[in-house]
């Protein structure tokens, strides 16, 4: 049952955090700064609500979308035309076999110990969405980080802006000052955390790499260097192609978390060799 996924403390915590940030930004700080009845106040409420809603939608898509499971009866496509011998082909097949699921797994799929199954193009298991991030929900996860960062930054600007313009000399109390400073520090830390995560996932997205592949790749880079070669991630087929494969072929739909019809079955992916 997908709804059961919602009964999780981290998910409730994220929803509460979204609520607190939205309520505080709009009804406390923005109202105090420009007033919600003014045209500046109204415009800011509309823009901030748009980003906050997109953050919430992306979050819900991440939670409720199955990241992708291995089709039953899947068998790996073991290449026979590269001159490799029987032994190496057998060992290749073994690396594509999951002992825990007692089944073969496609390239880029990994077994998740929390979900207790293999997940297609697994990136990582995310506690905050109580779900794995994989083939079918990576786009929504990326957009969650994008919109989360924008909303948090927007909120930080409103809180700091409101605090700076306030006349602290006259009627404001120590408690109010503490509240403003605490809110500004908390939202700045949240923005910094989300911004760092966004930078990391922009790097992964433009290189068509999962978090697991990045860490696996560091060893491959070291081994290649040792033998005087240069390692290149096999699925990195160029920035634009990488983006269209993950976000979709139409740029207009890149920022829409529900648009995922472009995703293929997730058991094979074009590699550098295919486009040469
Ligand atoms: Zn497995
Ligand atoms: Zn998982």
UniProtKB/TrEMBL annotation:
Q: Which GO terms describe its cellular component?
A: endomembrane system
Annotated localization: Endomembrane system
Q: Which UniProt keywords apply?
A: Acyltransferase, Membrane, Transferase, Transmembrane, Transmembrane helix
This entry's Enzyme Commission designation comes to 2.3.1.225
- Reaction(s) catalysed (UniProt annotation): L-cysteinyl-[protein] + hexadecanoyl-CoA = S-hexadecanoyl-L-cysteinyl-[protein] + CoA
Q: What class of enzyme is it?
A: transferase
Residues that span the membrane, as ranges: 7-30, 42-64, 140-160, 180-205
Q: Which domain of life is it from?
A: Eukaryota
What the entry says about domains is: The DHHC domain is required for palmitoyltransferase activity.
Q: Give the family this protein belongs to, as stated in its UniProt record.
A: Belongs to the DHHC palmitoyltransferase family.
Matches recorded under PANTHER family: PALMITOYLTRANSFERASE ZDHHC16 (PTHR12246)
* Protein name (record): S-acyltransferase
Q: Give the originating organism.
A: Tagetes erecta (African marigold)
């Amino acid at each position: 049952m997908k709804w059961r996924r919602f009964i999780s403390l981290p998910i409730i915590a994220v929803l509460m955090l979204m609520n607190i940030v939205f309520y505080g930004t709009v009804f406390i700080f923005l109202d105090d700064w420009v007033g919600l009845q003014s045209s500046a106040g109204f415009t800011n409420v509309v823009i901030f609500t748009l980003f906050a809603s997109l953050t919430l939608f992306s979050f819900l898509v991440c939670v409720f979308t199955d990241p992708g499971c291995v089709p039953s009866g899947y068998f790996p496509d073991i290449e026979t035309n590269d001159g490799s011998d029987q032994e190496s082909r057998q060992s290749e097949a073994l690396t594509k076999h999951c002992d825990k699921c007692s089944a073969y797994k496609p390239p880029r799929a990994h077994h998740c110990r929390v979900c207790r199954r293999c997940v297609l193009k697994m990136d990582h298991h995310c506690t905050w969405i109580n779900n794995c991030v994989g083939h079918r929900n990576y786009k929504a996860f990326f957009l969650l980080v994008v919109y989360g960062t924008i909303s948090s930054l927007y909120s930080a600007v409103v809180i700091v802006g409101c605090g700076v313009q306030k006349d602290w000399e006259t009627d404001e109390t120590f408690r109010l000052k503490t509240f403003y400073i605490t809110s500004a520090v908390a939202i700045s830390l949240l923005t910094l955390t989300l911004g760092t995560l966004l930078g990391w996932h922009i790097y992964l997205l433009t290189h068509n790499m999962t978090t697991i592949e990045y860490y696996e790749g560091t060893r491959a880079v070291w081994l290649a260097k040792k033998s005087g070669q240069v390692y290149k991630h096999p699925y990195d087929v160029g920035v634009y192609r990488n983006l269209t494969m993950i976000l979709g072929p139409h740029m207009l739909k890149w920022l829409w978390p529900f648009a995922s019809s472009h995703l293929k079955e997730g058991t094979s992916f074009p590699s550098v060799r295919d486009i040469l």
